Amino acid sequence: MTLNRLISRRHVLCTGAAFTAISALSPARVAMAGPTEDPFLLRAAAGQAALRPAPYGSTDVWSYNGSLPGPEIRVLQGDRIRVLAENGLNEGTTVHWHGIRTPNAMDGVPFLTQDPIPVGGKFLYEFDALDAGTFWYHPHQRSSEQVGRGLYGPLIVEEADPIRVDRDLTWMLDDWRMTREGQIAGDFGSRHDAMHGGRIGNSVTINGQMPERISVRSGERIRLRLINAANARIFGLNFGGLAPVVVALDGQPVSPHVPDDDIVVVGPAMRVDLVIDMTGKPGDALTVTDAFYEGLEYRLVDLAYGPDRLRDSVPDWSMALPPNPLAEPDMQAATRHQIVFNGGMMGQMMMGGGMGSMMEQMREGNMWFINGKAATGHMMDPLLLLQQGTSHVLQMDNRTAWHHPMHLHGHSFRVIARNGQPTRHREWQDTVLLAPEERVEIAFVADNPGDWMFHCHILEHQAAGMMGIIRVDPGTTKT
C-alpha cells in the first residue's frame, strides 16, 4: 500500500483543527516510583485512539494505560525501574524493554525468559537503568499484531549531565494499515507481507496523531528523539533545509555528525537522537518529508515558526553526550562468526543445509532463514554459544532482496564495517539496518548471561523464521 490517499486528504484540508499548530507533541510522561513505593502500573488493553484528525472518528486500538503511545517512562540513569504489567487483553502478552540492558529474566520474551502474562494476570519488571538514552517498550508475544495494533511506548533515561537544549521532544513514528472506515485492517499474518518487506501501512502518525503542523520558535535548539515503532516501514526524514545533527543512535552516544545526504534514516525499532537549531524566521514554515522509498515520498508534517524569536544566532553549546558504561570489545582476541540471511521473495536460497533443507522448512510455513535454519519457536537450539566475558565479531551477510533491521537483545554492539569498509563512527547500536545484499560486521562483549533473542525487527520476518538465540554461558566467565 502507498500513502497516496492520506497525502491527498491532508493536502486539501485547509480549515479547522487540522491546521492547528501543536506546540508540544509528546507522549504523556510519568515519574518512576521510589524503591519503597508501589511500582508504576502499565496496563495493556483494547481501547480507542484519535489517530485521524477531526472530524473523523476514533480507531479501535490496543494500548497501554489508554493512551497511544503508552506513557513516556522517564527516569535518571542509575534509577531502579519497577513496572507492574497488567494484562487486560483477551490473550497473553509480555513487555520487552527494547535496547535496555536488563537481566535475562526481565527481557520479556515469552517461553524463553518468562511465561506469557495470562489474561487478567500481572508481572513485575524490575531492573536498573544502566545506560542513559532513548529506548522503548513493546510486547514480544504475537508481536506483529500486538505492536501493530498500538502496544508500545517510550522509555527515556536521562543523563546526569545532559546536553543543553531549549526543548527535549520525543516522536514515536508509526504507520497503520487503515480501512476506508478508519479502522486497522485485520489482515495480520499475511503471507505476502512476510515474504516481502513486511506490513507497510497507508497512514503515518507521530505520537499517535496525524498533525498538520508543529509549532517551533525561531532560534530555539531542540533535542528530538525519534523512535520507529512501525512493524516494517523504514523512515528517511528530510528536515527541509535545517541541519539536524545526530548525537545518539539506539540510545548510545555517537560523535555528533550530519547524516549522509541530510537524510535521517530510522529503521524499525531503531532510535536516533537529533539536535536541531530552528534557524528560520518568525512566521516561516518548512516541511519535513519522508523520502526513504523512491517514488513514494510524502509530507510528514510542517514545522511552523511562531511570531517570536528566542535568539538571533545558533548557540555554541556542546552536543557531545557522555559515554555509557559499555564494555569495549577486544578486537585482537575476538572470535569471528559468519551469519547468513536467506529467504523471502527474490532472495538467494543456498546456505548451510542447502536448497532441500530450506524448501522442506518452507513447506512448513517458514520463509526466512539464519544460517539455513528458520526459527520454529522460542524453544530451539542456540545459534551461538558464547563464553561470558569474551569478545565476538558477527559478520552478517544479507543474501536477500529486502532490508533487515537486526536486533540483539541484552547487548549493545559496535558497527565496525559495511561491505568490508570500516565505519566512520564505529557507532554503538542494538539494532542495525542491513540493506539488500549488504554485509555488515558488528563487535561486542558477551557480558550479559542468558539466552538472548537475535532477530529481524520487521516483525513479519521474525514471525516467519528470521530469529535465533544467542546463549551467553555464565558458568565459564572469562576473567
- Counted by DSSP, the helix tally is 5
Integer-rounded radius of gyration: 22 Å
Oligomer: single chain
Rounded to the nearest angstrom, the distance between the terminal CA atoms is 53 Å
Residues in helix, %? under 10%
- Strand tally: 33
Q: Any low-confidence stretches, pLDDT <50, length ≥5?
A: 1-20, 349-353
Q: Note the main sheet.
A: 7 strands, mixed
Q: Average pLDDT across residues?
A: 90
Structural class: mainly beta
Give the percentage of residues in beta strands.
35-45%
User: How would the global form be characterised?
Assistant: globular
Describe this structure in words.
The model is unreliable at 1-20 and 349-353 (pLDDT under 50). The protein contains five helices and 33 strands. The N and C termini lie far apart (53 Å). Strands 22, 23, 25, 27, 28, 29 and 31 form a seven-stranded mixed beta sheet that branches. It has a six-stranded mixed beta sheet with strand order 1-13-21-20-15-18, with no helix packed on it. A six-stranded mixed beta sheet has the order 12-11-14-19-16-17, with no helix packed on it. The chain is globular and about 60 Å long. The chain is mainly beta. 7% of the residues lie in helices and 40% in strands.
What's the short story on this structure?
The chain has 479 residues and is mainly beta. Helices cover 7% and strands 40% of the residues.
Structural topology:
Layout: H1 4-12, E1 21-22, E2 29-31, E3 40-49, E4 59-64, E5 72-76, E6 80-87, E7 96-98, E8 122-128, E9 133-138, H2 143-146, E10 153-158, E11 167-176, H3 191-195, E12 203-206, E13 213-218, E14 221-228, E15 235-238, E16 245-249, E17 252-257, E18 263-266, E19 271-277, E20 285-290, E21 298-309, E22 335-343, H4 354-363, E23 368-370, E24 384-387, E25 391-398, E26 404-408, E27 413-418, E28 421-422, E29 428-429, E30 431-434, E31 439-445, E32 450-456, H5 459-463, E33 467-473
Parallel strand pairs: 1-13, 2-5, 3-6, 5-10, 11-14, 13-21, 22-25, 24-33
Antiparallel strand pairs: 3-4, 6-8, 7-9, 9-10, 11-12, 14-19, 15-18, 15-20, 16-17, 16-19, 20-21, 22-23, 25-31, 26-30, 26-32, 27-28, 27-29, 27-31, 32-33
